[in-house]
Amino acid sequence: MNIQKLPWAGIRVQFETTSIVIDPLFHFPSKFGQPHEPMVPLSDLGAIDAVLITHHHGDHFDPEALAMFYGKDIPVHMPSESLEIIGETKLTNVNGVSIGQTIQVGALTATATYSVDGIGDPQIAWIVQGGDKKMIHCGDTLWHGYWWRIAKSYGPFDAVCLPVNGAVLELPGMTPSGQPISLTPEQAASAAVILGAGTWIPIHYGVIHHPPIYRQTPDLFDRLQAAAQDRVNLTLLNTKESITL
Predict the structure, then answer these.
(1) Is position 244 within any domain?
(2) In a domain, 166, yes or no
(3) Over the stretch 55-96, which tens digit does the pLDDT of each residue have?
(4) Phi–psi pair at 168, nearest 5 degrees
(5) Where in this chain does the record put each Metallo-beta-lactamase domain (predicted)?
């Protein structure tokens, strides 16, 4: 199994002749200013067989890009509850999934499991398995109590892709909490340990930092290294870099 990091929270998984992408992003949400990293045309990353989406937010679900680069008929799988939220798109093959549901995409199987969104919207994590290798992508989840249930039902994992930017929001109409709506480096390290991670791949960092609306947690890379030390193997990938499990 090959795992390639895409911008922001995106991941491409390839096994044998099957490839899927999870949360690919090309059109940067304008409310967050300018991206701190170039957005990569999805066509640069090769053909894919299906798209898996953790939730409908604009930095994780980019329907215009999916239709543009993959074609309007590309199979897209996302939480069933999100289908009522996304509205009209050019995509013609969008499918809802529920917790515990498994789909087959060529040589890969993908299972929807628990994830908890930072502002209470529907969200899932995706477990992807090819042969005897298994990875999980947890979207932009915050800390929750499902880690042990996921580990018991599906773990251990050869790779875990976890958000790490500990983002704090101050959106119009929202009373500021000062609390992170995605995992901090320390929380992500603890989740990786619980999930039995062979390696921990940080995602969901770097591209967006637009105070006061959206603030990434400080000292990110030093804290990642410190949190991982003697606990879990940390694999930091730049965009387009990949590892083979």
Answers:
(1) no
(2) yes
(3) 999 999 999 999 999 999 999 999 999 999 999 999 999 999
(4) -115, 130
(5) 19-205
pLDDT tens digits along 172-214: 888 999 999 999 999 999 999 999 999 999 999 999 999 999 9
- Tokens (6 digits) for 58: 């604009």
Give the number of domains in the chain. 1
The token duo for 225 is 């290294």
Task: Give CA–CA dist 10/152, Å, rounded.
Answer: 26
Residue 243 lies in a domain: no
> Where residue 200 sits, what CATH number does that domain have?
3.60.15.10
Distances (CA, A) of 213 to 36, 115, 117, 170, 221: 15, 23, 17, 5, 22
Enclosing domain of residue 129: 2-238
Amino acid sitting at position 122:
P
In angstroms, the Cα distances linking 208 to 28, 158, 190, 203, 204 are: 9, 28, 24, 12, 9
Altogether, the residues listed in the chain come to a count of 245
